[in-house]
Design brief:
alpha/beta, 389 residues, 47% helix, four-stranded mixed sheet, Rossmann fold, seven-stranded parallel sheet
């Protein structure tokens, strides 16, 4: 039996991870769950999985969970807040599924890497903000980082067809989101409700907005750079509205290898959990005849400037990707609360990037401090206003 920690267990990826583990329950045991404030869902997960340790966001959530578990025994050991999250991340388990959304997932993922765990990484912000440090730390501790994002899992699987030295291009596919065909004029009027209507994927609100602005793809470019140790000039994006081809690898001889599947995150989650084995699964199978047609187009960097900003930040390196990510998280929060328009998000991110003083982090705390500075700066700009575009 392999023991598993699920960080972000009540989120979209966390719940899908538990779906997969239910299918694989003869070989895996859930030892640790870390959640935020969804007490009802967490209580149900505790009843089903009987973990030894559980982390929650605050005392209020803990009390709600305890009430919902009245009469249930044995209760897990509970941990609370950021300190509690770090404690459960250090508890020995074979696999840590890192599915906390945003920069909040960096520190607990670092803790898992520090103890040499296998990390099934769904939190792309970890490598965006601190990729150089995290990958070096993994090499030093012997930790294994396996991608869960469908695009990076597709690249990882496609790379089995040859030696990485034989690869010419890494091609990430993007659905294009709900605004793929919208004009700039139309994008200026895009609403939160429209941005959250993703045409193919079912994701959390933050990631869905990032997908609409294509920042999600920009973050994935930076993540791919670190996961596969590849120059940005060799990472391309291809818009593919059907979300069937999840990514492609072009080899030097002209062969292009792609991974195709339905748009179901349980497949890449299962592959990360069972790697290097492939295990029978009950998930829906791909029927290409039913799909009928696969189309591709180049991304538009003018209508979706976050792609340009992500490439620029990635190439600049140092603190720039951390600043990009932090400013974007503030911008998305502001858009979701209707304090900022859709196109103004990229304006805010670019302004914070222009303000930051370039440098190179030498330890994790440097990233934490720069992340805090970028958030304070973005909030200060929001308060000043002047974001008409």
């Amino acid at each position: 039996m392999k023991s598993v920690t699920v960080l972000g267990s009540t989120g979209v990826i966390g719940t899908q991870t538990l779906d997969v583990l239910a299918h694989l329950s003869e070989h895996y045991v859930v030892k640790v769950l870390a959640a935020g404030r969804n007490a009802e869902r967490l209580a149900e997960q505790i009843r089903v999985w009987r973990p030894e340790c559980v982390s929650v966001a605050d005392e209020e959530t803990l009390e709600c969970v305890r009430q919902r578990l009245s009469g249930f025994r044995p209760l897990p050991e509970f941990f609370v807040g950021d300190a509690g999250l770090m404690e459960v991340s250090r508890i020995p388990t074979d696999i840590v599924v890192s599915a906390i959304v945003g920069a909040k997932g960096l520190a607990p993922t670092w803790a898992a890497v520090e103890r040499g765990a296998t990390v099934a990484l769904a939190n792309k912000e970890t490598l965006v903000a601190a990729g150089d440090l995290v990958m070096a730390h993994a090499r030093a501790t012997g930790a294994v980082i396996l991608p869960v994002d469908s695009e990076h899992s597709a690249l990882f699987q496609s790379l089995h067809s040859g030696d990485p030295k034989e690869v010419r291009r890494y091609i990430l596919t993007a659905s294009g989101g709900p605004f793929r065909t919208w004009s700039l004029d139309a994008l200026r009027k895009a609403t939160v409700e429209q941005a959250l209507r993703h045409p193919t994927w079912n994701m959390g609100m933050k990631i869905t907005v990032d997908s609409a602005s294509l920042m999600n793809k920009g973050l994935e470019v930076i993540e791919a750079h670190h996961l596969f140790n590849v120059d940005y000039d060799r990472i391309d994006i291809l818009v593919h509205p059907q979300s069937i081809v999840h990514s492609l690898v072009e080899f030097v001889d002209g062969s292009t290898i792609a991974q195709l599947a339905t748009h179901d995150m349980r497949l890449p989650i299962q592959y990360a959990l069972t790697y290097p084995a492939r295990v029978e699964s009950p998930w829906p199978r791909l029927d290409l005849a039913e799909v009928g047609q696969l189309t591709f187009e180049r991304p538009d960097f003018e209508r979706f400037p976050n792609l340009r900003l992500a490439y620029e930040a990635g190439r600049a390196g140092g603190f720039a990707p951390c600043v990009l990510n932090a400013a974007n998280e503030v911008a998305v929060e502001a858009f979701l609360s209707k304090r900022m328009t859709f196109l103004q998000m990229a304006k805010l991110v670019e302004s914070v990037l222009e303000m930051h003083i370039p440098g190179t982090p030498s330890e994790l705390n440097d990233i934490v401090e720069m992340d805090n500075w970028a958030r304070r700066s973005a909030h200060a700009m929001l308060e000043k206003g002047g974001w008409n575009c």
